[in-house]
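Homework help board

Subject: predicted structure for assignment chain

Our instructor gave us this sequence and asked us to write out the predicted structure in token form, then describe one feature. I got the tokens but I'm not sure how to describe them. Can anyone check?
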Amino acid sequence: MNGGEFRYPWIVRRDIDGFFGLAIDNLIQFLLIATLCPVLAGIPSAFVFTRVLPGAAISVVLGNLFYSWQARKLALREKRGDVTALPYGINTVSLFAYLIFVMGPVYRETGNYEMAWKVGLLACFFSGVIEFTSAFYIDFLRRITPRAALLATLSGIAITFISMDFAFQTFEKPMIAMLPLALILVQYFSGVRFPFGIPGGLAALLAGTALAWIFGTMDPSAIPAAAVDVGFHPPLFSGAGLLDAMRSPYLWRYMSIIIPMGLFNVLGSLQNLESAEAAGDRYETMPSLAVNGIGSLLASLFGSCFPTTIYIGHPGWKGLGARTGYSVLNGVFFVAIALSGCVRLINTIIPMEAGIAIVLWIGVIISAQAFQATPREHAPAVVVGLFPAFAAWGAGILKLAYQGAGTLLSEQARSGVPINGFLGLLALDKGFIFISMILAAICVFIIEREFLKASLWSLAAALLSFFGVIHAFEFSGNETVSVIGWNAGGSYAFGYFCFAAIFAVFHFRQRSEGGREESLRRPPSGK
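My token output:
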């Protein structure tokens, strides 16, 4: 304050601490992309570093600059020096979902990594469309969908495909991965500050990297080869690839993954806006969500298959003392390393085991939120909503097991040898994100005795089943492929129609009793 004029600094000392924390989180996403794209979608590393990551960097810097400007605008308007920008980066859950459930299956079916990449662009593009348009109808979405229905699916993915997989990898290489895990648990679970204010993520990354080099698990000879790739790699417009994917049969096949993931991204961003408001920084919903969507759209147009999102943890960065400069630094850093080709070099120096504890923690927090952010009485609905995600994870394990044994899922089905729940497991896998949402929503409305809403959700499930959007599948070698068409899942549609009929009966019974529910009241606990 000088002569009545309020001044807000572009950067403060604590922005450096915030930058290290946010940059480590985003760096892990970049390393995951670099590591998993070749393994799950067959995309060559050179393609990832020259086409995918530059596009991701463009989307990351756009959001970081906007949210920093937004925070500065809020600070000047309210004349406050403690405003913190919203943290922003690549959506971890969407990263795994699109690689495992979209790009991976396309690559295994076609053997063409470029098609897998193009369909990934398609998924990212439509996620951006959902995120952008949701800025204008988010209130309606929140009214019709119980929070438990949205968070249960997210929790299921976080438990299985994020936390569980990385927990296994941690104990696969305990000499490297367990020390970083201990550091992450201490800082993020207990909130203890490390000496000199060192961010927990940075401490974990440095400790894991040091152990990997000490125990000789890293390859020094890979460093010169990676250094050769250092140079200018500009983002390239990828609209032609996006159009190819739109003309392919995959446009509708994977909408049962893309639409729910887009909605989860929206709701997650909205909850993080609410969290920021609770911490004292109230940001406008519409522009915040719209720019989030524009970031994902931009990513898809310049080669990245991975949507962006407003990150969880604004109160943490605010408590750390970060303001707006940490966001700008984060965006500039990732543009610099992605466009200069340094990500491959970083990947040869820092082992994935040094950073997976951070992603493991993210998965745990997402899973816990499904129970913490919903009413206690809705906990059973959350549990029911976990089943389809577990089925999808189990189906993936089954496919790997059959492939390793030199046989196929289709052969097991033809053999007639019974495995309890074998076909049911595969049916829950198809469209599992929609299934999880629907089952959890039905259970919430039953708990609340809103039987008409439970019946309507059941009818929606029957319609989706009938046309094969959920449940219906056929064998294709060692894969199961969704079957879209008239009466594709008629038997499941009949089952959901039975749901709808039963719930409708109880709805009309309630009405006929004039609101008196004594005959339907649950017995006291323990009886």
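Reply (TA_rk): Your tokens look well-formed. For the description, you could write something like this. The CA atoms of residues 176 and 214 lie 10 Å apart. That's the kind of observation they're looking for.
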